[in-house]
């Protein structure tokens, strides 16, 4: 173990390496990367979910972010409501299924919001009525810095017995 240093002493070789590596992840570098989040909907699962959500099988009310009254929820309206809920923490809406551009922190907030939607009791109760393997959408993260790339967000599912809603 190295002895304690006084304020103003030069950093050790190890500390210099850590400082150099940390500079690579400094906010200006991270904030210069443009992140997009693309939602690829599963139309069959959305239709099945909406059918259950409109039925009397589920006794609870939909979450506040669902704008259509129960019994009148449509596939398009539900997908729009999910995107509006995500847009609250995103940098913008590039297309109807694409949130962009986002900073690193906005992308992180979007991923958290996916988790909030997935954990909603109404959503989970409706999902429990669907066939195994049903999910709302596959999620992809796009990035530009300086090149372009896209990859699956690899969403981790919630603990059992909850169902995974986003993949």
From TrEMBL:
Highest rank taxon of the organism: Eukaryota
Protein name per Swiss-Prot or TrEMBL: Uncharacterized protein
């Amino acid at each position: 173990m190295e002895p304690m240093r006084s304020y103003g002493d030069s950093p050790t070789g190890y500390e210099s390496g850590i400082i150099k590596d940390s500079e690579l992840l400094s906010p200006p570098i991270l904030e210069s990367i443009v992140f997009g989040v693309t939602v690829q909907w599963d139309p069959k699962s959305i239709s099945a979910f909406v059918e259950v959500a409109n039925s009397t099988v589920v006794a609870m009310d939909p979450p506040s972010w669902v704008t259509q009254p129960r019994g009148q929820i449509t596939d398009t309206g539900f997908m729009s409501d999910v995107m509006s809920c995500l847009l609250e923490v995103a940098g913008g809406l590039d297309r109807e299924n694409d949130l962009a551009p986002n900073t690193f922190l906005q992308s992180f907030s979007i991923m958290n919001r996916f988790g909030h939607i997935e954990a909603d009791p109404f959503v989970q109760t409706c999902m429990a009525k669907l066939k195994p393997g049903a999910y709302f959408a596959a999620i992809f993260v796009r990035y530009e810095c300086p090149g372009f790339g896209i990859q699956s967000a690899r969403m981790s599912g919630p603990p059992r017995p909850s169902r995974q809603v986003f993949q």
